[in-house]
Amino acid sequence: MSIANVRTGAERRTPQALFRVSPATRADEVNRMTMDLGAPESHGGTASLGVLLDDCLGFTMYERRGDRAGLVSADLSVDFVRPTGWTGAHLTAEGRLETRGEDGAMASVRVYDSAGELVATGTAWGNFIDGVQQSRDDRPLVPADGSVPTSTTPLEAIGGRLERTERGARLTVPPNRSLANALGVMHGGVQACAYDLAGNAAAAGSAGAMDTSSLRINFFRTVPLDRPAVFEAEVLRAGRRVVVSRVTCTDADGRECGVATVTCRRATPGDRAPRAAAGTLGERDQAPS
Fold it and tell me: Residue 187 in contact with residue 232, Cβ under 8 Å?
């Protein structure tokens, strides 16, 4: 479960700050958000896109909620058209509302690199809710110099511990207030990152290096941040080129908080090579951010 986070969190350590995701801007019917990739060798591939995707989709629906108090995500689906080899220093997400009903909405997103090449597409369904209140923001403050420490990999950003298991892989995320959304529970994009990491690790354990090609998540309940959360991945089907994993998220009480299906394809050297020198900015990088 997730909730649209409309605060920038500029003064605190937030998922947006950890993954260098900008606040949303709107032009006509399109909402745009950008993500600074950092060094091309350290952006972490598809797992690093979770916060960008979830925020862009969530904000697109949240902004059209009308007089409803809030929005929670029910499911998130992503296809990674180009898992690696992105051009330039930024990715741009463009979200559009597809449909809105009395109790919820659906939005779509397309993510482009700096050369305007398509990186990923996705959709999300969200349910409108009433009677919700934002939690007291006790996320850690940034240092006095205004900087927010960023990590070189998504795993380091969420502070997770990843280990192989007999059936696949296990990712444990310790209590970390920097991973909170506006309700004070684990941000949906952080969950997407964890699902991707665990599912990909399970696939790689059975077939060698893999690229995540799709991610399908159903959010059941919020993930508390006062105790560890566990993302347990098992391989459902391992072929020569494609491996499918199932990842279940449980809280410290053993309750299922969500489940994801992660499909991975065998990585090839050509797919992983950058298409152009990092830092080359294309037209889409000029969009307001």
Answer: no
Q: How many residues does the chain have?
A: 289
Which residues are CB-contacts of 210 (< 8 A; sequence separation ≥ 6)? 200, 203, 204, 243, 264, 265, 266, 267
**pTM of structure:** 0.87
Q: What is the pLDDT of residues 30-61, one digit of tens each?
A: 999 999 987 655 556 899 999 999 999 999 99
The DSSP H or E segment spanning 234 is strand 229-238
- Rounded to the nearest integer, the mean pLDDT of the chain is 85
Buried b (16+ CB within 10 A) or exposed e, 258-285: bbbbbbbbbbeeeeeeeeeebeeebebb
Q: Which CATH class is domain 15-131+158-273?
A: mainly beta
Counting Cα atoms < 13 Å in the Cβ hemisphere of 139 gives: 27
What residues of the chain score a pLDDT lower than 70? Answer: 1-11, 39-44, 132-136, 140-151, 268-289
Other CB atoms within a 10 A radius of the CB of residue 61 amount to: 25
* Angle of helix 50-62 versus helix 188-207 axis, rounded to 10: 140
Neighbours of 27 (CB within 10 A): 10
